[in-house]
TrEMBL record:
<dbReference type="InterPro" id="IPR036259">
    <property type="entry name" value="MFS_trans_sf"/>
</dbReference>
<dbReference type="GO" id="GO:0022857">
    <property type="term" value="F:transmembrane transporter activity"/>
</dbReference>
<dbReference type="Pfam" id="PF07690">
    <property type="entry name" value="MFS_1"/>
</dbReference>
<dbReference type="InterPro" id="IPR011701">
    <property type="entry name" value="MFS"/>
</dbReference>
<feature type="transmembrane region" description="Helical">
    <location>
        <begin position="83"/>
        <end position="101"/>
    </location>
</feature>
<feature type="domain" description="Major facilitator superfamily (MFS) profile">
    <location>
        <begin position="326"/>
        <end position="558"/>
    </location>
</feature>
<feature type="transmembrane region" description="Helical">
    <location>
        <begin position="456"/>
        <end position="477"/>
    </location>
</feature>
<feature type="transmembrane region" description="Helical">
    <location>
        <begin position="431"/>
        <end position="450"/>
    </location>
</feature>
<feature type="transmembrane region" description="Helical">
    <location>
        <begin position="407"/>
        <end position="424"/>
    </location>
</feature>
<dbReference type="GO" id="GO:0016020">
    <property type="term" value="C:membrane"/>
</dbReference>
<dbReference type="InterPro" id="IPR020846">
    <property type="entry name" value="MFS_dom"/>
</dbReference>
<feature type="transmembrane region" description="Helical">
    <location>
        <begin position="149"/>
        <end position="170"/>
    </location>
</feature>
<feature type="transmembrane region" description="Helical">
    <location>
        <begin position="193"/>
        <end position="214"/>
    </location>
</feature>
<keyword id="KW-0813">Transport</keyword>
<feature type="transmembrane region" description="Helical">
    <location>
        <begin position="240"/>
        <end position="262"/>
    </location>
</feature>
<feature type="transmembrane region" description="Helical">
    <location>
        <begin position="12"/>
        <end position="31"/>
    </location>
</feature>
<keyword id="KW-0812">Transmembrane</keyword>
Amino acid sequence: MTKITKPRLNFWQIWNMNVGFFGIQFSFGLQQTAVSPIFSFLGAHHDELPLLNLAGPVTGLLIQPIIGAISDKTWSPKWGGRRKPFFLIGAILASLCLFAFPFSPELWFAVGLLWILDAGNNTAMEPYRAFVGDKLPDSQLTFGYQMQSLFVGAGITLANLSLFMFQHWFSTPVEGGGIFDAAAETVSSIPTWVYYSFFLGALASIGTVMWSVWKTPEIPPTDKELEEIKKHNDGTPAPIIQILSVLLVIFSVPLLLGYLVGELFPQLWDNVNLWVIIVLVFAFAWLFMLYRIIKNNTSNRSIKKLGDTLDPLLEAAEAIGVMPGFLWKLAAVYLFQWYALFVYWQFMPPMLRTSLFGISNEDNEKFESIMTSFREGAEISAQDQSFAQNIQSLAEQALGHAGLMNGTYNFVTMIVALALVPMAARIGSKLVYVVCLFLTGIAMLSMPFITDKWLLLAPMVLFGIGWAAMMGIPYAMVSKVIPEERRGVYMGIVNMMIVIPMLIQTVSFGPIIKNVLDNNAVNAILFGGVFFVIAGVLAMRLNLPKDKLDSAMDVEIP
């Protein structure tokens, strides 16, 4: 395929192109910091948190490669081009979910909304990664992705600082009935000040994406590429039909088999982690079987029609088969890096409850027992009411301080993101990435031992430098070694390398923290720190071809 010569963009063009990432990452910032505490407010226990966050890795694993493959074969001038229609639809869906999330009356409702929210975010995320690569020449890729990293930091910073500030501005003092107010029509432990952060996130998600859609035109495909796109899509169902069909085919058989196994062995319903693992094994076996059937029966009209419908899935599978060796090495790094990050996001607020505010597991269990009794209509003694009110107040303070800490590291990310560009040009992207992974590991290993809430911000500086590298440098490196015409699907595959470790974490870490780490959030954070150090060691193997090494920064900063 003829390679399009891409014009160099100035600072503000690259800025406008990436603004939409601010809103997408505001949403992710709320997921990182506020969703697990909301689950806890609604009655979830520590060992349940990983599985309750299963939506992130599963939707990322499925949605991003599918959307990437479809967007590679899309060109719609009426709706914005190739990538923009997808991340605009994703932003609209995410905004609606963010608005509804704090109104969750029960744990199951919040978990269901998280699945839809994650589907929206992933629909927006993958085309956006490819969009930056589509627009920029190789010499500007590092700058472009580090600019994206800047907006990652800015979006998550505002999301977390909004939690911290709203908790201080609007938190209701413990007086009267408080959480035991009998006048309330429903019993909900979600603080009202949390609502305001989600409302702000809903506006940011759609507003910033619309700005980038408006300000940044996509590069039209060549006549030859348009002809290939038209030929590929001839007789193929519409994208929405493809997406729904793929999801239906993927989920139907594994879930049915999982249900039958659960009925045959009822004890599995008491061990949901094991049941989920069984369903995932069925899913991978089912996908492999489908792939072989479609590839070995190309002359069968019915099977060919099925293949056309599942084309995005087949495209992703074939791309994995010819994936550059660099990506396999990156997958090993990501296994430990993203497993550790998921541990951090789930267990940092619970860690603060213990390390900073002194809430023990026994306190949590007593609190849940009191709240369960209250919901069932039992009379609660004044002493138990006072105890529960105090635990609720401390938990809210822990969530607010988690927002400050996460806001701090993302503020640092925003500040240092572009500074890493000339550093990468001078000493190489690999070395910058390795050092930053080690700094993040040191940050996590030190957090549980700091009992002053302001000194806790010090390791967040190191974490922010690491996060700046993680959100930009690997994507710039990958973008240099993947085929131009398959950028969308390969960016989706890179996301698979992110969500598979998260998926492994959601089904494995519940038993690990319960049986190995003494159900202690402090031990969970230390565990994550060790994994970051391992990721840093593995990143030493990430060598780019000599003709793809970083060059001097090819953009003028005003």
